[in-house]
Predict the structure.
Amino acid sequence: MGTTTMDNIDSLGFEQAFAQLQDVLKRIESADLPLEESVAQYELGRKLAARCQALLDDAELRVRKLEEE
């Protein structure tokens, strides 16, 4: 899996973003990271979580539209 930057999060699909979010959580929970790295990982995790939520919201909207048809 490639390195995620704040700039390329919007191009990730749900599965990619979710997998990378899990990796971030593992790093935060298990590593003795310096404060700056912990904050950077937290910030990355928040952006990945927001991307996942946006994709889920979009999928839910699409399903509701299909149900209305």
About this structure: Residues 15 and 52 are 8 Å apart (CA to CA). DSSP finds two helices and no strands in the chain. The helical segments are 14-30, 35-68.
